Amino acid sequence: MDLGQDGGIAANGFLRALPPESLARLRPHLEPVELVRHQRIYAPGADAAFVYFLARGLVSLVKTMSDGRLVEVGAIGVEGVVCLSSLLGLPEAVLESLVQIPGAGYRIKATVFRDEAARDASLRQLVARYANASISQLAQASACNRLHSLEQRCCRWLLTAHDNARANTFQLTHEFLALMLGVQRPGVSITARGLQQAGLIEYQNGRVTITDRDGLEAAACECYGTVRSQLSDFQPG
Predict the structure, then answer these.
(1) Which of 113, 129, 164, 221 could form a disulfide with 152 if both were Cys (CB 3.0 to 4.6 A apart)?
(2) Is the pLDDT of residue 16 over 50?
């Protein structure tokens, strides 16, 4: 992907949803960035100096408990923005932002973004709409983690990863998936083996290939479709 071209900007749903005049004012301040696997963009309490817009890849929002265990409470892909707290004018990141699927995108200084939003009503309105969609997504993830089976949640996560990797094959270890789903590794291994035997995925050497997208959607819980609907205003090009 050539992030220097308009096609790269259109690959992010938030930027694509901006009115042309609003995007024109932000464009000179957008800096292309590469995102590598397991990269920590922000730790909780860190200075949220930049706002990130993904054009390819997936970033997990992670909550770490006092005993060191962690679990994914949400994910941000090509539809959205990493560091919502910056959009809302908060100086520090609330959750850890961890790159799950490597990719690329843009970043802009949070101070510049807030200055532009202060003078641009259309940008402020879009931030409010995105914040509302993000809150709904976090609530859906919380309910999903409590009410749905490991297989359903695993299918949901694989579908989300597939959407944002922009490829049928991507890196994913059982250990990391278990960590994100808040379960033990053996449970994820058994679930992945079942999905592979059903012909929905292939898994080899830490790489997953989606082989039956329709079947994976049928096996996932309602949350995948619900979140897609919540973020429908921010679908990229």
Answers:
(1) 221
(2) yes
| Spatial separation of the C-alpha atoms in residues 237 and 227, rounded to whole Å | 18
Domains of the chain (ranges, CATH numbers): 6-144 (2.60.120.10), 149-220 (1.10.10.10)
Rounded alpha-carbon distances, angstroms, from residue 184 to 93, 149, 167: 28, 14, 27
Distances in Å between the Cα of 169 and the Cα atoms of 32, 49, 101, 173, 207 are 24, 33, 11, 13, 7
| Residue at 39: amino acid letter | Q
Token look-up 């359903």 returns 152
* Amino acid of residue 78: V
Quote the pTM value. 0.87
Confidence band, pLDDT 50/70/90 cuts, at residue 63: confident
Query: Which string of DSSP letters, residue by residue, matches 42-91?
Result: E-TT-B--EEEEEEEEEEEEEEE-TTS-EEEEEEE-TTSEE-HHHHTT-S
- Buried b or exposed e, range 56-70, using 16+ CB within 10 angstroms: bbbbbbbeeeeeeeb
